[in-house]
Design brief:
Length: 620
C-alpha cells in the first residue's frame, strides 16, 4: 500500500477508532486535488522550459546561418579578389588559398596542405628571376619580419609578393600581378625621356648624354649643333598645328638620315633640335654636317596637299674649346644660333668669343622694344610717291621710326625683324595703320597712303579687323589706303592667306606687292591673287641706267604688270636719268630720294604745300 494511503487510513480511523469511510474519501479526494495542482504546476514548468529550449535552438540556428552567410561572403571575397591570397600556419603548411594564389603558375588546390618549401620547389622552374631570395621567407616569418619580393615569371609577367607574419606563427601571403603597372611605368619612363611627337631624345636626356660623352671622351673634340627652323611659326599659324606637327616629324626623319651612327639627335622643344656629333675631326665634321643639314631641310615640303617652306639656322659649339660641360656648350651653341638667325637664316655659325656680348645687346634691344610702344617712342615718317604721267604726288608711304631715348632715331631694318620674331609687330603694325589713316585724312583727297604689313600680321584674321577699325576711326575712304605686302607672305601659299587677302580687298583697300623681285620669285602667285600694284625693288633701280640686265628685268616686270592689269612703282629713284628711263619704260609711279626722303608728318605738310591742308591738323 502506498505510504500516503496508509497515512490517510490511519488519520480516518483515528477519531472514532474505526475506519471512517467518508473521512477517508475526503482525505483521498483532497490528496488527488493536491496532486492535480502539483501536476499542473509541473506541466506549466515543463512548457516554460520547452519554450526556452526552442528559443535557444532558434537563436543558435540563426547564428549558424549568419556565420555560414559570412563565411560564404568571405569565401566569395577571397575567391574574387584581384590578388592571390594564402595563409600558412605555424608549421609552414598552406591552410587557406584562394583561386588566384600561386600566380596562375600552379593551381591553388595543388598547393594547399603542403609546406612553403614544397610549394616553392613545385613552381621553381616557372620563375625567371627574383629580386631577393625566396627560400629565407620561413625564417623571416618566424622572426616576425614582414617581407616583399618581386618575381619575374617565365611567361613574361611580373608578380609582387608580400609576406605578413601572424601572431602565434604562420603568415599571410599576398601576390599581386604588376605586369600592367610595370609596362605603364616603362612607358612613362620612355615618354619622360623622349619627345612624344618625333620619338627623339628630349632636352633632359640630351643634357645627360652630353655630360656622359664629355666624361667618356676627355681627349676628343665633340660637336654640338643647335638648330632652329626658320618660318616654322608662320606654318603653324597659317596652316594649323597638325601640319606643323607633321612637318616636325619629317624634319626629325631627315635629320636622323644626315647624322652618323652614334651621333645623337634630340628635339629640345618647339621647332628647336640639336645634334651631338661624336668621333669626327672638329670643326670640319660639324661644318660638313651643318651644310648637309641645311641642304636637306631647306625647301618645299608637301604636306596634306599644302606646299610648306621652311629653312633652318644652326649654331655650333665644339668641346672642349667652347666649353667643358653640357651647360656651357649648350649656351654657347645657342648664342651661335642666335647669331646665325640674325645673319639671315638658312646659315650656320660657329660660336666665337664676343658673341655673348652681342646677344646681350640683342636681349637689351628686345626689352627696349617692348617698352617702346608703351612709352610712345614710335613715330611714322612719310615718303611721297609720284605719279609719272602727271608728275604729281599721289601717294605717301608710311615708314616707321623709333626714337630711342639713348640710341636716337633707329631705322626700321634694325628692329622690325626682331619685332616680327617676338610677335610685337602685330601691335606695332596696328598702331602704324591707325596713325597713317589718321594722318592721311589731313591730306588732299587725291593722295593715298601706303602702309607696310608684315607677314607676321597674316597669322590671323585680326588684320582684317585692324584695317576696318583704322578706316572707321579715321574716316578715311578705303580706296585711299594701300597695303604693301612682301612675297614672303605668299611663301606658304595657303587658302588662309588668299582668303585674308580677298577679305582685305573686299574692304575696298588696294594691295601692293612690295620689294618685287627679291623674294622667292615664284610668279605663280601673281595669277592667284589680283594685286593692284607691283613695287619694283630698289636694287634693280640702282643699277638701272648702268646695267643692261637690270633694265631688261625692269622692262619685263613692267610689261608683265601691264599685261596682268597691275600698276607699277619703282622704288629708290635717286636721279632724273632713272626717272626718265622709267617713264620711257611705261612705269606708272616712282618713289625715292630724287623727290624726297621719308620725312615726319609736319615736314610732309610743308612739302605737300598748304593747299593740301583740308583739315585742321591740331584737331587730328
Ligand atoms: P620698304 O617698304 O622697301 O621701304 C622703302 C625703303 O626704301 C625705306 O627704308 C626708304 O627710306 C628707302 N628708300 C626710299 N627711297 C630711297 C632711295 O632713293 N634710295 C635709298 N637708298 N633708299 C630709299 P626705311 O624707311 O629704312 O624702311 C626700311 C624697311 O622697313 C621698309 O622697306 C619696310 O620693309 C620696313 N618698314 C618700314 N616701316 C614699316 C612698318 O610700318 N611696318 C612694317 N611691317 N615694315 C616697315
Ligand atoms: Ca614698302
Ligand atoms: Ca620696298
Amino acid at each position: 500500500m502506498h505510504r500516503v494511503l496508509k497515512n490517510q487510513i490511519a488519520r480516518a480511523s483515528a477519531e472514532k477508532g474505526e475506519l471512517d469511510i467518508d473521512a477517508l474519501l475526503q482525505l483521498v479526494s483532497k490528496s488527488y486535488s493536491e496532486f492535480d495542482r502539483e501536476r499542473g504546476r509541473q506541466e506549466h514548468a515543463n512548457q516554460l522550459m520547452m519554450a526556452e529550449v526552442e528559443e535557444v535552438n532558434a537563436a543558435r540556428d540563426a547564428v549558424l546561418e549568419r556565420l555560414s552567410q559570412e563565411h560564404r561572403k568571405l569565401d566569395a571575397a577571397l575567391e574574387n579578389m584581384a590578388h592571390g591570397l594564402g595563409m600558412y600556419d605555424a608549421d609552414e603548411r598552406l591552410i587557406v588559398a584562394n583561386r588566384r594564389f600561386g600566380g596562375r603558375v600552379s593551381r591553388a588546390r595543388d598547393l594547399r596542405a603542403r609546406t612553403y618549401s614544397e610549394n616553392l620547389q613545385a613552381v621553381r622552374h616557372k620563375i625567371l628571376s627574383f629580386d631577393q631570395p625566396l627560400e629565407d621567407i620561413p625564417y623571416l616569418m618566424a622572426s616576425g619580419t614582414p617581407a616583399e619580393r618581386m618575381v619575374e615569371l617565365a611567361d613574361g609577367r611580373t608578380v609582387s609578393i608580400s609576406f605578413q607574419p601572424l601572431i602565434g606563427g604562420g603568415w599571410v601571403q599576398v601576390e599581386r600581378d604588376i605586369s600592367e603597372q610595370r609596362r605603364a611605368d616603362e612607358k612613362i619612363r620612355y615618354l619622360a625621356r623622349h619627345d612624344s611627337l618625333t620619338g627623339l631624345a628630349n632636352r633632359a636626356v640630351f643634357n645627360e648624354v652630353i655630360t656622359e660623352e664629355l666624361e667618356r671622351r676627355p681627349n676628343e673634340s665633340i660637336g654640338l649643333l643647335c638648330l632652329d627652323l626658320d618660318h616654322f611659326k608662320s606654318v603653324n599659324d597659317t596652316l594649323g598645328h597638325p601640319i606643323g606637327d607633321a612637318l616636325l616629324k619629317i624634319v626629325a626623319q631627315r635629320l636622323q638620315r644626315q647624322v652618323r651612327e652614334g651621333d645623337v639627335v634630340a628635339r629640345l622643344g618647339g621647332d628647336e633640335f640639336a645634334v651631338l656629333q661624336l668621333g669626327g675631326e672638329q670643326p670640319a665634321a660639324a661644318e660638313r654636317l651643318s651644310k648637309a643639314i641645311v641642304e636637306s631641310l631647306i625647301g618645299s615640303y608637301e604636306i596634306d596637299g599644302h606646299s610648306v617652306q621652311v629653312g633652318v639656322s644652326i649654331g655650333i659649339a665644339v668641346a672642349p674649346v667652347d666649353g667643358h660641360d653640357a651647360e656651357t656648350l649648350m649656351r654657347n651653341a645657342d648664342i651661335a644660333l642666335y647669331r646665325a638667325k640674325s645673319d639671315g637664316r638658312g646659315v650656320f655659325r660657329f660660336f666665337e668669343a664676343g658673341m655673348d656680348e652681342k646677344m646681350q645687346a640683342r636681349r637689351q634691344l628686345e626689352m627696349d622694344l617692348r617698352q617702346a610702344l608703351l612709352q610712345r617712342q614710335f613715330e611714322v615718317f612719310y615718303q611721297p610717291l609720284v605719279d609719272i604721267p602727271t608728275q604729281k604726288v599721289n601717294a605717301c608711304e608710311a615708314l616707321l621710326r623709333w626714337r630711342h631715348p639713348v640710341r636716337g632715331l633707329v631705322p626700321p631694318d634694325s628692329f622690325i625683324p626682331l619685332a616680327e620674331e617676338i610677335g610685337l609687330i602685330v601691335d606695332i603694325g596696328e598702331w602704324v595703320l591707325e596713325q597713317a589713316c589718321q594722318e592721311a585724312c589731313g591730306w588732299s583727297p587725291d593722295i593715298s597712303v601706303a602702309v607696310n604689313v608684315s607677314p607676321a600680321q597674316f597669322g590671323s584674321m585680326r588684320l582684317v579687323k585692324a584695317v576696318e577699325r583704322a578706316l572707321k576711326k579715321s574716316g578715311l575712304s578705303p580706296d585711299r589706303l594701300e597695303l604693301e605686302i612682301t612675297e614672303s607672305v605668299l611663301i606658304n601659299d595657303t587658302a588662309h592667306t588668299l582668303e585674308l587677302l580677298h577679305r582685305l580687298k573686299g574692304l575696298g583697300v588696294r594691295i601692293s606687292m612690295d620689294d618685287f623681285g627679291t623674294g622667292y620669285s615664284s610668279l605663280s602667285y601673281l595669277r592667284r591673287f589680283p594685286f593692284d600694284k607691283l613695287k619694283i625693288d630698289r636694287s634693280f633701280i640702282g643699277d638701272l641706267t648702268r646695267d643692261p640686265e637690270a633694265s631688261a628685268i625692269v622692262r619685263a616686270v613692267i610689261q608683265l604688270a601691264n599685261t596682268l592689269g597691275m600698276s607699277t612703282t619703282a622704288e629708290g629713284v635717286e636721279d632724273s636719268d632713272q626717272r626718265d628711263l622709267l617713264q620711257a619704260l611705261n612705269c606708272r609711279q616712282f618713289q625715292g630720294y630724287l623727290v624726297s626722303k621719308p620725312i615726319d608728318a609736319t615736314a610732309l605738310h610743308a612739302f605737300l604745300g598748304p593747299k593740301t591742308l583740308t583739315k585742321d591738323r591740331s584737331v587730328a
